[in-house]
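Quick one: co-fold with iron/sulfur cluster.
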Amino acid sequence: MSAATKTDNNPAPTAIEMIKVKVDGRELEVPRLSPDWQGKLAPTTMIQVCEAAKQDVPHYCYHPKLPVAGNCRMCLVEFGTPALGPDRKPLLNADGTARIAKSPRPAIACATPVSPGMEIYTSTPGVKQMREGVLESLLINHPLDCPICDQAGECKLQEYSVDYGQSGSRFVEAKVHKPKSVDLGPRIMLDAERCILCTRCIRFTKDIAGDDKLGIVNRGSYNTISTFPGTAFDNNYTLNTVDICPVGALTSKDFRFQMRVWFLKDTKSICTSCGTGCNVHIGSREEKIYRYTPRENEAVNGHWMCDEGRLNYKWIQRTDRLRDVLVHGCKSSWGEALREIAHKLKQAPPGSVAIIGSARQTNEELWLLSRLKSRFGAISDSFPRDGQPDKLLVSADKNPNSNGARLTGISFTEAGINLAKIADGIQGGVIKTLLVFGENVVKRAVSPAALSEKETTTEAIEVHGITADVLAKLETLIVSDILPNETTRLAHYLLPGCAHAEKRGSFTSTKGRVQKFMQAVEPAGDARPEWDFLQDLVCNVTGKEGFHSIEGLFNEMAKSVPAFNGLTWAGLGETGVSVKI
Amino acid sequence: MSGSSAIIVVDDTVDIVGALANLSEFYAHESCGQCTPCREGSLWMSKTLHRLSHGQGRKGDADYLLKIADNIPGGRTICAFGEACSWPVQSFVAKFKDEFVAKGAEDEARRARQSAGLGGEKETAEAQH
Ligand code: SF4
Ligand code: SF4
Ligand code: SF4
Ligand code: FES
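Sure, here it is.
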């Protein structure tokens, strides 16, 4: 990977002319050009100005990251421009201010550029009436089935109806009926009656996902969203349409009817299914995760995430999770097991310890492992995990933290190059103690169908010499993992760890974005966050007291890892910081 | 005026409600459906006029129609079809309001007679809310 991301720094500041406009009487200076949905400079629109003026303009079809369609008409506003005399000179009022000629027709704020001196009116009786009219039109044929609609609670039709609509309906005709429960593709259901025809889903699919699968069939009020007959809506980004659909027309098969959105606790987290590190919201209730949704981060994933990453959470709640600390197969306690492990490690002769970390572990955990590594002069590595990249977000690196493993010194430029040496060392009797964190080392290349749910389906597993027979030669095998596997079954000391959703920590993405994530749910059984018990272990081994908060640990790590110098836990903010990698 | 700046000449035997119902049905069928006011308004007007011209009218339908039509034109739609579909309704109802009111009143009176005579026959149009 080359230098730090460009996205972090704003594009070189070119002098953009500023113009003065008024929003509801309040004057403000705005650039004549602003970034459009693709980030290219285009004439600043009314809706951008109103946003800058903190004046809400309700809208359905407009989305800052999609091409403008201007079809819902919800954003209609009134406006005026400086009046010009026959000589094209501005006319002045008696008090010397510019005379404003109010436009006889309204304009859609989402698509209308502003001009110098323009006055935008967002709260006049005329504007209110137009909004009421649009909402009434959207509601007359709407099924009004909020009680059974998954969108209820985060529905723009509900919200705007309360804010801008009328309380009654005068519609007495028969409603238009359209297909319901339409199976659009493997992950998406459509209720065409709830659709307000904003075409956000069509534009996303065509212009962002590059799939051009969705369109509208039929005319007028019978307009219906559809795929081309006989084809399925199936790309790796389909679930984003559920997020941007302002109503409950598009629903996720995975989430529909599972939980009312207002019961969900929101936790800011990171997707761990590849090295891109898309920012996510985890929606959970009573220690159960119900969904991931993308969290906006312009430097990483914009507004989107891939379907594969979004749905890769079920393994966290598997019933066969490792819950107990096991010493030689018998249930033990953390204190006892860590004391025994520390004792064994302290007695190990230099060069007899090897550490296999995982690029799925956090920066902090890998750094603690690297402290053990330097204490015992151990050889270390992590596993590469390669898959298919795509043009939008998905990275070829299926590990969320390959850079973290490298920067903390657990693996090298090419992850996996030490695995053969470790295998030889064990074979030759030199390496007698092996710590394995979060990797099933004896697993060999497997068919995608045989992968456990924890694994993403496109990864390939490195072929190396560490087999079950080789592990049997070890004096001490210490394993920490989340789900049971062949390696955990061979462990002398088994330490149950946590999924990222159960702990706090940070990852370093393929592009060098250091991002933190928060805890959404409690760990299973006796499982503890790896950083937490590794601190205890490091303390037992070195005699130095560790940190009992992730903040302290991160800040200490940042001081000792050159690439992280200057970073602080608090300074990472919600969207992370880019470092040189 | 028929809407698209065209003039249609009819003699005084033509049922003005029926003529507007015919015109509105055409517009509802032609609306492309892109933008909300015309997509929903054109069919709403057409359905109302169909009801009014098929014995299910109400006295208030003339004002009801005007209110629907008023939500469409004046720059609220993407193209001029919005104006085209609402102007005839506005102009027909403005010029012949008495005929629209009379038709609705007649329907209401007939339904009242029927329900009195038949012991409360179900009011179909309003029941479809
Ligand atoms: S399905 Fe949703 S996103 Fe797509 S056009 Fe309908 S309302 Fe808009
Ligand atoms: S692109 Fe990668 S990080 Fe983003 S959602 Fe998909 S798997 Fe997760
Ligand atoms: S006004 Fe024009 S663009 Fe809008 S729905 Fe009617 S025909 Fe389509
Ligand atoms: S948001 Fe402007 S027309 Fe839909």
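If it helps, Chain B has six helices and no strands.
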